[in-house]
Amino acid sequence: MDKEKILARVCKVVGDVLGVDVTDVTAGARFVEDLGAESIQSVELVAAFEEEFDIEMDEDAALQVRTVATAVDFIADTIGKQSSE
Amino acid sequence: MKIVMFEDADFHLLYPLTYLRPVFELRCGAFTLREKVRNKFPDCALHLETREVLADVAAETYGPDAVNGERRLAPDDDVLLVNAGAILTSPADAYRARERVATARNGCIIWAYLTSGTVGDMAAGSAAEAAARAAERLGTDLCDDILIRYPWDLITHNPSQIESDFNAAFGPGIEGHLDQRAAVYGDMEQLHVGEGARVEPFVFIDCREGPVVIGPGAVVHAHSSIHGPAFIGRDTRLLEARIREGTSIGPACRVGGEVEESIIHGYSNKYHTGFLGHSYVGEWVNLGALTANSDLKNDYGTVTVYLNGQPADTGSMKVGSFIGDHTKTSIGTLLNTGSVVGIMCILVGGAGVLPKHIPSFCWYLNGKRSKGMGLGAALDTARAAMKRRGVELTGAMEALIKYTEELTRPEKMAQVKRDRKRAFR
Question: What architecture (CATH level 2) is domain B2-149?
Fold first, then answer.
């Protein structure tokens, strides 16, 4: 799946979970500083990404992700690994 | 005579309380099960036998020679093999009167007394195996001693154990400070205030129904009440708490609100208003303000508890919650009757009464069980919580927590997936 498509779906999930306007969710946006994510919402985001993309994310690694762009990279990487398993 | 306390194969029936500790470290009354045996036989060498995965953690407390030591079954002395879940209720001499194997009604071995000659024939393997071989050779006798098999057994026996521990190890005495404006209702002979403890004005202590022990260094702040039988451990603080009968609180806890017939193992906080009844709370737990648990069903039926994910009828009408070490609850968390919460969980209330079974390392959030923040974050939180009380998370304990995370992960993930299916349906 190309990263543009992943980005669009990530932005929608982030908007839904954090309750922010999807237009504010840009590739460079930081989850905590720019979008106001609390630790509880980080856990919700991981769950929502796993459902959206049908993947399983390592919690420790996923919670190191700080921006929307790195989330897209992380998800693309996870999809690649898990689709080849 | 030497003593070997051994865990039998049913230690898992006491999960989540025994993920991070041997069965003999569980608390009932004023002491742990190991301390009770130690107190009964103060002059005997005490060896401990536990699961290999717990051996390093136990050895940090008791020394490497005392835990799973190779010489524990050497035929150098008569030996009393004691089940790790046993509470021995007879006078000490009764256990060495003659060679015999004593069992509970369900056939489980509670203890076995063997002479050194017999031990030599049976000592290969573990103490549990030696006791089983002795039972085959010598036969067994039913005994009246107590065997803790399930978490709720600890709660059932707690009131009477506080009374017997008071009589055996404390007795009356005011070694600390009991303010003159505190009210003691009942017999002063039923009150023990330990050295360095402080009972402030306007505290109400009711000893009419049983003894009250306030351990060394404990502080009972103004407007708290304690109804005996009750045990307050060393350095624990009660903050406008209402401690009802049958409650034991271990060391270094902070407790407020109402607590009834419950055991708080130690180093845990329930600082604010909220109800805890017929429950066992592990170590390093924090119960947020207004966390409350049910311990009685509305139909007055017996309470079912999930043991290792499977429902089990306790046969009892009053059963609260069993909460594993390092678990935290948010404000307003509501726990159902007979709930089992694993270790290192985060429970966020607000979505009604929680499900009765929360596997270890889960987060309960927005009405469903989630994967949580991962082991790294959980360990960081544990380190921070322990540091506040001057305790270090040791390498051995960290390894045990990692092992437990792997052990419990399948159960957690199965539950998480079930909840997600329901939520996204």
Answer: Alpha-Beta Complex (3.90)
